[in-house]
Amino acid sequence: MQYPETIASALDALLTGAITSEELVEASLERSEQFDDLLGVFLHQDAEQARAAAKAVDLRRRAGETMGPLAGIPLGVKDNILTADAPTTAQSSARDPIESDDAPIVARLRQAEAVIMGKTTTLEFALGFNDPDKPFPIPRNPWNVTHWTGGSSSGTASGTQAGMFLGGLGTDTAGSIRMPAAWCGISGHKPTFGLVPRTGVLPLGWTLDHAGPLARTAEDCAILLSVIAGPDGEDRSVRDQVSFDFAEVELDFRGLRVGIAQNPMSRSVTGVQRLVLDAGVMFESLGARVFELELPVYEEVVDSVMLGLSAEAFAYHRPEAINRWHDYGRSTRSALLTGALLSSTDYLQTLRVRRFAQRRLEELFENVDLIIAPTATQSAPRLDRLDFQEVVGMLQTHYWNGTGHPALSVPMGSVDGLPVGLQIVGRPFADQQVLDAGRIWQRHTDYHTQVVPL
Amino acid sequence: MSGESTNYSQTAEFVRQLLTAAGIAPDTDEIERAIKGYPALRESMERLYRIPYDHEEDLAVIFSA
Lengths: 454, 65
Known about the structure:
- The complex is a heterodimer of chains A (454) and B (65).
- Helices cover 41% and strands 15% of the residues of chain A.
- The radius of gyration of chain A is 20 Å and the shape is globular.
- In chain A, helix 7 (218-228) packs antiparallel against helix 15, helix 10 packs across helix 11 and helix 10 packs antiparallel against helix 12.
- Chain A has helices at residues 7-16, 21-39, 47-62, 104-111, 154-161, 178-184, 218-228, 262-267, 270-285, 298-323, 330-340, 344-364, 388-394, 398-403, 431-444; strands spanning 42-45, 74-78, 115-120, 140-141, 144-148, 167-172, 187-190, 210-215, 257-261, 289-293, 370-374, 407-415, 418-425.
- Chain A has an eleven-stranded mixed beta sheet with strand order 1-3-2-6-8-7-12-13-11-9-10, sandwiched between helices.
- With 454 residues, chain A is α/β, with parallel strands linked by helices.
- Chain B has two helices and no strands.
- Chain A binds chain B through residues 192-194, 207, 237, 297, 299-300, 303-304, 307, 314, 318, 321-322, 325, 330, 333-334, 336-338, 340-342, 346, 348-356, 358-359, 402-405, 427-429, and chain B through 15, 18-19, 22-26, 30, 33-34, 38, 41, 44-45, 47-49, 51, 53, 57-63, 65.
């Protein structure tokens, strides 16, 4: 059996009987057995449970029952999201593993009959760096194992690229879905703040955290988003009336106004800049009007995100930080320490800056429909040269966590032999438009079809 | 030079006070890095106060988007 490349094609193959869920899950498990030790994708995997779930789906399908929208699809779940069938560690020794019910977004995947393959690697509480002194796997980039995957949804991104599952869940507080998606050569979507509930997601920064999908294509991200979006009655940041219904509407680029954000472009290496400009040319050829624009208070919002995140993380972790400081990894401690040095006045000011930027963006979006930019200034750095501050400087994702806008990263080619991502951003709750733009981009390009030759 | 060392010792004392108030006990090298990085951290923060706000901004906690 040839492993399907996408959720959409797997759903078709399952529907026509070309494959079964058991075959799909078996192929995924085989890949995991072969490559997980090398790539560090899973923190917890229960093969028998996955097999049993797949078998149940196949039995129901054979009985002619109505199937869920993800019936039989193998997925990974980042290990800062609570699951009933596996402990949640957030890749940390500072707290005991959490036994709990499923987070609502995981429950929705199960209700849609997805097969959860396991809990995937992250950074400690989605914050620190991988620490070789701690008892957790180091995620390695499937394209070159001497390079990093990006984080913190590392395992979900690399496992998707490596064929250990077809997609999954991540979280994004400053770029943690989009960065590993870009550097592993897949797609990842940070939904609009308030579209997907974070109940059961261990917090990093409450006002910045987003949960969302990673998968090979924008279409697959849309399929997953349509299952996990919408209020759950618990997360009060999610508006009552929001939902996301995936529909195969054809976004008409004719007359669409597409801005290329110059602030992140000017920070990027030439190869990345060239690829973003090529994307602009492609959108132009479809009828869009493409022009350069500046994002308001860019540096200030980036700083407000990183500083506010540190303050919020320190508030959450303070009890353990007082009592179990050395159980945290060194880089996590460094970030928490920054939060300890800020005043309440400082923290409130970070929130004011973000509102200021939101207002300026409301004005900007009167004259532009979509904004494109690099996801990161370069391709994945080497694992042995990782520096927290340098990585923060490479990311061009924080800004949209600060403002809450929907932001998708899709593969746009490679630089220095490794994949890089194109970020597509739209108005708040225009996730459909953003994902459609990604889908059309992927209809005209083949970067997303490049599968790592493991 | 003596001005620099005075600044450093003032910063060091202030950072140590903040860490004590926060209730955490980092290692000596972590405290040293925090002291060295504090002026840059403060400058990043001060920049946020210099934005020319044209009206009263509320806080971006609940998004009306």
